[in-house]
Amino acid sequence: MSFSFSTEDLERIGSVLNATPKHDGKLVRYELQNEESGRQISLEILTDLEMPDKLAEGQPNNLVSVVTQDSFLQLQGCTGFISSQELGEVIFVARTAGRTCGLVIEREVFSSLYANVDERLLSTDFEKLPPEMIMSSVALSLTETLFNDMN
């Protein structure tokens, strides 16, 4: 699944997060701050990452990283993203073999990572899920529109 971030994509991400993209070659960095809470996030998108031949074949080569005061989160092989001005968030997605991973960045300087979510959970009746699984399923269900081949 091939996906590349366009210049317009990178500008839209900055607009949704109220952050100016800083370009350095293939690396784009956004600095988010919330003075009220004291939270800070650095979001980095590395596009067209150079991969060894064995690994590069047919694989997405985008790397999305988040650095906070308390954590480092990384989404390898980003296959798409969805942004919402209304929700004030961007969801980066890595999808492979019926599983979805999502890295959610919120304008209010908060991040979440959901890993290995079975894609069938994205379109299920959320009320029938165990409470521990609802949040990831609801958050990542927004990404269903990115992929035409989902059931």
Describe the structure.
- The chain is an alpha+beta fold and 151 residues long.
- It has one domain (7-146).
- Helix content is 17%, strand content 40%.
- It has three helices and nine strands, in the order αβββαββββββα.
- The strands form two sheets. It has a five-stranded antiparallel β-sheet, with helices on one face. Strands 6-7-8-9 form a four-stranded antiparallel β-sheet, with helices on both faces.
- The chain is globular and about 45 Å long.
- The model has no long low-confidence stretch (mean pLDDT 83).
Mean pLDDT: 83
**N-to-C span:** 17 Å
The rounded Rg comes to 15 Å
Order of helical and strand elements: HEEEHEEEEEEH
Major sheet strand order? 1-2-3-4-5
Number of folding domains?
1
The largest sheet, given as strand count, sense and whether it forms a barrel, is:
5 strands, antiparallel
Low-confidence stretches: none
The portion of residues assigned to helices is 10-25%
Shape: globular
Q: Report the structural category.
A: alpha+beta
**What's the total number of strands?**
9
User: In percent, how much strand structure appears in the residues?
Assistant: 35-45%
* Annotation field: number of helices: 3
Helix-strand layout with pairing:
Blueprint: H1 7-17, E1 22-24, E2 27-34, E3 39-46, H2 53-56, E4 63-68, E5 72-76, E6 80-84, E7 89-96, E8 99-106, E9 110-118, H3 131-141
Antiparallel strand pairs: 1-2, 2-3, 3-4, 4-5, 6-7, 7-8, 8-9
